[in-house]
């Protein structure tokens, strides 16, 4: 199957979403958000793959050697950093919410509705 | 919505998404296909600029503006998370007590800590040559410092972690990137344009601005991450939450 | 230095200001911090004004790092300052400056050790918005989109002593991040198909492929992040939760310009990337997003009328207006775009002013609840006048800029669907009427306070007061800034030069070929004819009609139950019963439950996929 890696990305995204929908704890929701995000890593890296290509680093390889696409790797690096920092920020909010509200169960967070 | 309705709505949507996404994937080039126009151009441009690690060339030269935005995100979320994790008005900070740690653990920590820091510096410095760079090396630097906590205790970590200095270093390093971009403007060639000699391919000083920006990013990631982790660790170790704020605690 | 060099400075200058504040903020006195942030915000504004003049004769393009395109393609990132992009950045810069001035005397004492954080984050927010408005690269747009988001989550949860802002910020952060990752998936699909990342280069490369499931999926995924930011139904649930609890100056930015940037992104991405031959057909885009726009406008209007929490009311009114903006943009005509541009500019002034006045109430009474505050603000006549004027402006009263934008957009909409102007009038009347009702209750003490409204609701009581000296006088900037903002909204409608300039911007926005050529270092395109964007008799009449209806709604709601004749009382009762049957279920959907919101997001993606797939 030549599209299986792409399908895996879609599957991971849906798995993350499912976890977020059914979550009973905000920490878990944030974890599942990271799962959904890892779909983007898989998709980007799968797209950049060239059959028989090596890493796009020419310190040991000949400049004429076949390499995988370096652009998606750079994008993934950016994506990883963005994801990690956003997760840190969300966890900081979750810590304070837990202290102020005494719970992180979405069913019990009833301050905002209507 | 009730739980059933929520999951039902999601499953229906997910089924549609799964079918359409699969159809879409059949329209993609096959896995491992050879045609990558941008990728090919990026490799050529990196070699022209004598940067052996093409990913670093893309990140810190060709698409450096992305990375400027990215490290602004890092800077903003460190700033934001640390402010969010500040002690609330009704909370007090207390000093953690010294812990008893087996001497063997201390010894391993004392050996590993400088080694890890050295590795981090190496990874930052060789970003333009080998896999790694400011982001990866910065993370190694920051986590390496926390060996002091793992192998000794929180008081030891606080001694090796000058937070006030690191907070300023985080900001200054973030600004350094933006300023390095201005250098090209002052030189009359344009924002983020390389102003340094490109050096010899595969040498430590090759790649023009790439190693300099790498160093700035390494400093920012390293110090920013320490500050960020300090915010979280303080919550766990140093801050006493008054009982009033913990009403309804169902732990 | 050339005009093109001004483009990256719009990002670099606020960034450097933020760095200075973060590095030295703790050591500086408050005055020095205020000076730094104000100077930085003013410098960005000056930069963008110069850019605005520089872009008068065509797009200003900067290939960063000096990577000029070879054979039409570049390896770098291109910034494109066309007049619409610059105007959007200019609006953001103006609003940031207003917010900075508003905050001079805000927050009695910033938290120790984090003194520079708040102004630094405001400047980073500005950097994100400017970068997003000016970039011509899809992935770069994602990065600045995330920068905007990250800063906004942190600013929303700034009051850590109150659980509601924390919950609102979490909802905001989780839903928006998820949507941003969907966008990134879409970017990945587009990269796989075309091997490019620039708006223009993707757009050009897509012309060689046919419209298939891949194109639709990529389009929907890329748009998901933008639609969530723009709070289009059913992606809107996070907005009231976040905007109702964020610190007031932050609300001014979120509602005034950040949400509108989502609509701008939709328009930019569609016209440059997807609107080419073999792209998403114009008709499909128009029908779909006029539909979503109208649905959003009506939902926002109905929910807005239901609120007693003033900031939540304003948040829903933003949703209602964003629905109208999306409708105007989706018409894909220069006149529809010109009207929307005017509408957005006028709305930013009026909405930010309304939030600003609400901040005064929060400051003095520690509450933003319409019923709790009943009659208590009689002592603030000036604030009352400003609030009422804001309500009238929101209702589309000529000659406010909102009214002009509404009139022009209505005219463009009527050419497409005859009944669309009715939606504009009804939505304006309901949102303006809700504000006027609140003004009558809070500032005039008219009618009676209704403490027992049915159904789920957020009360605006026991808010964390944002300033801790209740006895002091209202700080002058907190009333002067809303007044200036309202005057700005008025100027948009009164000065024909503004309308003409924005109409010209709209004309060049629809020139896809010109954008593609400029980004590829090609020759400048032809200039499209500038649409008509002035007051017409029809526009003035419709504006007066919606303002009158708003006044009638407000008066009916305040005094309706007390009318002496039975028919009036019966009418009021019927309205009440109907609202209980129809509106309560709608309100229950706004449950504050994160899992629900994620489900709706998935549902929205699925519906868009099906609707668009059926049309290509």
TrEMBL record, chain A:
<feature type="transmembrane region" description="Helical">
    <location>
        <begin position="6"/>
        <end position="23"/>
    </location>
</feature>
<feature type="transmembrane region" description="Helical">
    <location>
        <begin position="71"/>
        <end position="95"/>
    </location>
</feature>
<keyword id="KW-1003">Cell membrane</keyword>
<feature type="transmembrane region" description="Helical">
    <location>
        <begin position="30"/>
        <end position="51"/>
    </location>
</feature>
<protein>
    <submittedName>
        <fullName>Cation:proton antiporter subunit C</fullName>
    </submittedName>
</protein>
<dbReference type="Pfam" id="PF00420">
    <property type="entry name" value="Oxidored_q2"/>
</dbReference>
<keyword id="KW-1133">Transmembrane helix</keyword>
<keyword id="KW-0812">Transmembrane</keyword>
<dbReference type="InterPro" id="IPR039428">
    <property type="entry name" value="NUOK/Mnh_C1-like"/>
</dbReference>
<comment type="similarity">
    <text>Belongs to the CPA3 antiporters (TC 2.A.63) subunit C family.</text>
</comment>
<keyword id="KW-0472">Membrane</keyword>
<dbReference type="InterPro" id="IPR050601">
    <property type="entry name" value="CPA3_antiporter_subunitC"/>
</dbReference>
UniProtKB/TrEMBL annotation, chain B:
<dbReference type="InterPro" id="IPR050622">
    <property type="entry name" value="CPA3_antiporter_subunitB"/>
</dbReference>
<dbReference type="Pfam" id="PF04039">
    <property type="entry name" value="MnhB"/>
</dbReference>
<comment type="similarity">
    <text>Belongs to the CPA3 antiporters (TC 2.A.63) subunit B family.</text>
</comment>
<dbReference type="GO" id="GO:0005886">
    <property type="term" value="C:plasma membrane"/>
</dbReference>
<keyword id="KW-1003">Cell membrane</keyword>
<feature type="domain" description="Na+/H+ antiporter MnhB subunit-related protein">
    <location>
        <begin position="106"/>
        <end position="226"/>
    </location>
</feature>
<keyword id="KW-1133">Transmembrane helix</keyword>
<dbReference type="InterPro" id="IPR007182">
    <property type="entry name" value="MnhB"/>
</dbReference>
<feature type="transmembrane region" description="Helical">
    <location>
        <begin position="68"/>
        <end position="86"/>
    </location>
</feature>
<feature type="transmembrane region" description="Helical">
    <location>
        <begin position="133"/>
        <end position="152"/>
    </location>
</feature>
<keyword id="KW-0472">Membrane</keyword>
<feature type="transmembrane region" description="Helical">
    <location>
        <begin position="164"/>
        <end position="192"/>
    </location>
</feature>
<keyword id="KW-0812">Transmembrane</keyword>
<feature type="transmembrane region" description="Helical">
    <location>
        <begin position="212"/>
        <end position="233"/>
    </location>
</feature>
<feature type="transmembrane region" description="Helical">
    <location>
        <begin position="107"/>
        <end position="127"/>
    </location>
</feature>
UniProtKB/TrEMBL annotation, chain C:
<keyword id="KW-1133">Transmembrane helix</keyword>
<comment type="similarity">
    <text>Belongs to the CPA3 antiporters (TC 2.A.63) subunit D family.</text>
</comment>
<feature type="transmembrane region" description="Helical">
    <location>
        <begin position="35"/>
        <end position="54"/>
    </location>
</feature>
<feature type="region of interest" description="Disordered">
    <location>
        <begin position="449"/>
        <end position="468"/>
    </location>
</feature>
<keyword id="KW-1003">Cell membrane</keyword>
<feature type="transmembrane region" description="Helical">
    <location>
        <begin position="84"/>
        <end position="104"/>
    </location>
</feature>
<feature type="transmembrane region" description="Helical">
    <location>
        <begin position="251"/>
        <end position="276"/>
    </location>
</feature>
<feature type="transmembrane region" description="Helical">
    <location>
        <begin position="597"/>
        <end position="614"/>
    </location>
</feature>
<feature type="transmembrane region" description="Helical">
    <location>
        <begin position="6"/>
        <end position="23"/>
    </location>
</feature>
<dbReference type="InterPro" id="IPR050586">
    <property type="entry name" value="CPA3_Na-H_Antiporter_D"/>
</dbReference>
<feature type="transmembrane region" description="Helical">
    <location>
        <begin position="540"/>
        <end position="561"/>
    </location>
</feature>
<feature type="transmembrane region" description="Helical">
    <location>
        <begin position="313"/>
        <end position="334"/>
    </location>
</feature>
<dbReference type="Pfam" id="PF00361">
    <property type="entry name" value="Proton_antipo_M"/>
</dbReference>
<dbReference type="InterPro" id="IPR003918">
    <property type="entry name" value="NADH_UbQ_OxRdtase"/>
</dbReference>
<keyword id="KW-0812">Transmembrane</keyword>
């Amino acid at each position: 199957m030549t599209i299986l890696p792409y399908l895996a990305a879609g599957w991971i995204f849906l798995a993350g979403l499912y976890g977020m929908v059914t979550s009973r704890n905000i920490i878990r929701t944030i974890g599942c958000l990271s799962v959904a995000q890892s779909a983007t890593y898989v998709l980007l890296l799968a797209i950049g793959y060239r059959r028989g290509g090596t890493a796009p680093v020419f310190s040991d390889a000949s400049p004429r050697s076949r390499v995988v696409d370096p652009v998606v790797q750079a994008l993934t690096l950016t994506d990883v950093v963005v994801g990690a920092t956003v997760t840190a920020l969300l966890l900081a909010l979750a810590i304070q919410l837990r202290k102020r509200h005494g719970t992180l169960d979405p069913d019990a967070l009833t301050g905002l509705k209507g | 919505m009730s739980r059933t309705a929520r999951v039902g709505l999601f499953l229906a949507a997910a089924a549609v998404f799964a079918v359409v996404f699969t159809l879409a994937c059949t329209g993609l080039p096959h896995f491992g296909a050879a045609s990558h126009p941008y990728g090919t151009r990026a490799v050529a441009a990196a070699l022209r600029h004598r940067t052996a690690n093409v990913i670093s060339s893309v990140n810190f030269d060709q698409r450096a503006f992305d990375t400027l935005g990215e490290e602004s995100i890092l800077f903003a979320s460190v700033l934001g998370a640390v402010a969010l994790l500040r002690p609330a008005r009704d909370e007090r900070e207390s000093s953690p007590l010294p812990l008893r740690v087996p001497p063997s653990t201390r010894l391993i920590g004392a050996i590993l800590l400088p080694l890890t820091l050295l590795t981090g510096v190496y990874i930052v410095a060789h970003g333009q040559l080998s896999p790694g760079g400011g982001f990866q090396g910065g993370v190694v630097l920051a986590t390496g410092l926390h060996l002091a906590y793992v192998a000794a205790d929180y008081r030891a970590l606080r001694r090796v972690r000058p937070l006030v200095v690191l907070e300023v270093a985080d900001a200054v390093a973030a600004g350094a990137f933006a300023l390095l971009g201005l250098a090209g403007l002052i030189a009359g060639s344009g924002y983020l344009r390389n102003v340094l000699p490109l050096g010899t391919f595969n040498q430590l000083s090759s790649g023009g601005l790439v190693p300099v920006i790498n160093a700035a990013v390494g400093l920012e990631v390293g110090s920013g991450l320490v500050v960020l982790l300090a915010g979280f660790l303080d919550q766990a170790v140093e801050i006493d939450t008054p009982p009033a704020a913990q009403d309804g605690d169902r732990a | 230095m050339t005009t093109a060099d001004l483009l990256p400075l719009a990002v670099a200058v606020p960034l450097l200001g933020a760095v200075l504040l973060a590095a030295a903020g703790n050591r500086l006195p408050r005055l020095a911090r205020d000076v730094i942030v104000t100077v930085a915000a003013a410098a960005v504004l000056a930069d963008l004004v110069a850019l605005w003049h520089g872009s008068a004769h065509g797009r200003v393009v900067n290939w960063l790092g000096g990577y000029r395109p070879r054979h039409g393609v570049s390896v770098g990132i291109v910034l494109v300052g066309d007049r619409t992009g610059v105007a959007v950045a200019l609006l953001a810069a103006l609003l940031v400056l207003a917010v900075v001035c508003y905050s001079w005397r805000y927050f009695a004492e910033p938290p120790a050790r984090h003194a520079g954080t708040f102004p630094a984050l405001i400047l980073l927010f500005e950097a994100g918005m400017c970068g997003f408005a000016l970039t011509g690269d899809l992935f770069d747009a994602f990065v600045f989109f995330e920068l905007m988001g990250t800063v906004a989550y942190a600013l929303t949860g700034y009051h850590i002593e109150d659980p509601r802002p924390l919950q609102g910020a979490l909802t905001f952060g989780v839903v928006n991040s998820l949507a941003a990752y969907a966008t990134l998936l879409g970017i990945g699909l587009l990269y796989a198909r075309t091997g490019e990342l620039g708006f223009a280069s993707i757009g050009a490369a897509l012309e060689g492929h046919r419209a298939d499931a891949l194109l639709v999926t990529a389009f929907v995924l890329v748009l998901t992040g933008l639609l969530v930011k723009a709070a289009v139904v059913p992606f809107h649930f996070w907005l009231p939760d976040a905007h109702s609890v964020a610190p007031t100056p932050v609300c001014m930015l979120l509602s005034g310009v950040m949400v509108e940037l989502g609509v701008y992104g939709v328009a930019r991405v569609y016209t440059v990337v997807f609107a080419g031959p073999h792209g998403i057909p114009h008709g499909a885009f128009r029908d779909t997003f006029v539909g979503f726009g109208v649905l959003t406008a009506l939902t926002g209007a109905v929910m807005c009328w239901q609120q007693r929490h003033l900031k939540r009311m304003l948040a829903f009114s933003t949703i209602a207006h964003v629905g109208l903006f999306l409708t105007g943009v989706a018409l894909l005509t220069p006149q529809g775009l010109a009207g929307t541009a005017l509408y957005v500019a006028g709305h930013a002034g009026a909405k930010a002013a309304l939030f600003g006045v609400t901040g005064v109430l929060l400051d003095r009474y520690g509450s933003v609840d319409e019923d709790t505050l009943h009659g208590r603000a009689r002592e603030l006549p000036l604030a009352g006048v400003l609030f009422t004027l804001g309500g009238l402006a929101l209702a589309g009263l000529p000659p406010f800029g909102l009214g002009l934008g509404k009139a022009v957009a209505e005219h463009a909409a009527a050419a497409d669907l005859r009944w669309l102007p009715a939606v504009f009038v009804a939505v304006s009347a309901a949102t303006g009427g809700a504000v006027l009702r609140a003004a009558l209750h809070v500032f005039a003490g008219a009618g009676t306070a209704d403490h027992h409204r049915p159904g789920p609701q957020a009360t605006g009581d026991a808010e964390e007061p944002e300033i801790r000296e209740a006895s002091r006088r209202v700080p002058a900037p907190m009333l002067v800034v809303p007044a200036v903002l309202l005057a700005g909204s008025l100027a948009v409608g009164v000065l024909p030069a503004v309308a003409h300039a924005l109409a010209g911007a709209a004309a060049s926005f629809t020139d896809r070929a010109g954008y593609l050529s400029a980004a590829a270092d090609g020759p400048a395109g032809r200039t499209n004819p500038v649409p008509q964007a002035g007051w017409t008799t029809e526009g003035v009449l419709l504006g007066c009609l919606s303002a009158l209806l708003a006044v009638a709604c407000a008066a009916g709601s305040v005094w309706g139950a007390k009318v002496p004749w039975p028919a009036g009382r019966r009418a009021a009762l019927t309205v009440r019963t109907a609202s209980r049957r129809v509106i309560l279920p709608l309100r229950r959907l706004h449950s504050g439950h994160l899992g629900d919101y994620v489900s709706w997001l998935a549902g929205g993606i699925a519906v868009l996929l099906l609707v668009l797939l059926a049309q290509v």
